[in-house]
Amino acid sequence: MPTGKTCRGAIHVHSNYSDGSGRVEDVISAAQTAGLDYLIITDHDKLRPEQHAFQGRHGNLLVVYGVEMKARMFGKKHFLALGVDSHEPYRGLTFAEKLERIDRDGGKSIIAHPAGCFKPWLAIAHRRWKRFPEGTFHGMEIWTYMHDWVKGLRLSRLREQYRDPDHSLGGPDVKLLAAWDALNRKRRIAGIGSLDNHARHVPLFGVRVFPYEYLFRRLLTHVEIEPFTGDVAKDISRLLAAISAGRSYFANNAIAPPDGFRFFAESGDGGHGVGAWLNGGAQALRIESPCVCEMKLVRNGETVMTEVTGEMELRDPPPGAYRVEARLDGAPWLFTNHINVGMPLVT
Ligand SMILES: [Zn+2]
Ligand SMILES: [Zn+2]
Q1: Among 80, 117, 207, 293, who pairs with 326 as Cys (CB 3.0-4.6 Å)?
Q2: Tens digits of per-residue pLDDT, 64-95?
Q3: How far is the CA of 201 from the centre of ligand 2 (A)?
Q4: What is the domain partition of the chain in residue ranges?
Q5: What CATH number should be reported for the domain whose range is 7-259?
Q6: Span 294-303, average pLDDT
Q7: Could you give the residue ranges of the DSSP H alpha helices within 129-218?
Q8: What distance in angstroms lies between residue 269's CA and the mean position of ligand 2's atoms?
Q9: Which residues surround ligand 2, an ion (CB under 5 A)?
Q10: Using the 8-state DSSP alphabet, how is residue 131 labeled?
Q11: pTM
């Protein structure tokens, strides 16, 4: 039963080991100042021993150092490999082989920015993923803060969009949400909120888009696990297992703090949080929000309930893959992983 307490953290951040602007030490210190519980850094292509050495506890912050790899040697389709020690074993393999090997090594693969992002005037061209691999991958970025912001940029509104990025976001891509819902009718594919932040300096305007700490107060993935114990290996494996099992929701904390939010199913044997797969069905689905919001319950990709409220209940839910979306004054705020009710698990 979820208590409403979560471990919250930022996923997909670049340091100056690849094309980010900050030293890892500074990125870590920004995450500490923002009060994160965990931080997942993923530089491009390489994970060398000197990078991996940063993995571990830094005060109250747990740092996981993964790597953002290319699905294919040429092309701009990326994925995150988490819980691996080095990029070396995966060099020269096909995408399917990489996924298989990462899974065998106990790591987790997360498809990065699958909605794509095409902005020729900023020299950004990431293609949309039209098909997802048959092989074992564990999750995908459903909402990527920087991609969402860049997609919405208009030359005529740049100043306003820089000053108030949160209200120029559209939220997760609608086609991607539909694809995610379809995948989750058969097997659990976890969704996460990510940043893909490089904290790039834009000399023309003399600004940084966006400083690390600034984004560490925004789109975070809140994982429903017990607090970290200090045993680094166990904490990392618990964190990555929970993320890849979909035991999380992701929310823009700058819109409102989501602490206390709960989406759970009640069945004969108690309450079950996000990520649960209840073959035997459920008596009710419940949503509790710390604030009144525009709440939407989605089943198999279709909206089944929508209301401006702080709580919602669906009794005797018919079988399906359910998730929740919440907006505040029209701004995208919080998105949960699925709870599957009364459906056989295919894999
Ligand atoms: Zn990328
Ligand atoms: Zn990236």
Answers
A1: 293
A2: 999 999 998 877 899 999 999 999 999 999 99
A3: 16
A4: 7-259
A5: 3.20.20.140
A6: 98
A7: 145-151, 158-163, 174-183, 212-215
A8: 41
A9: 68, 196
A10: S
A11: 0.97
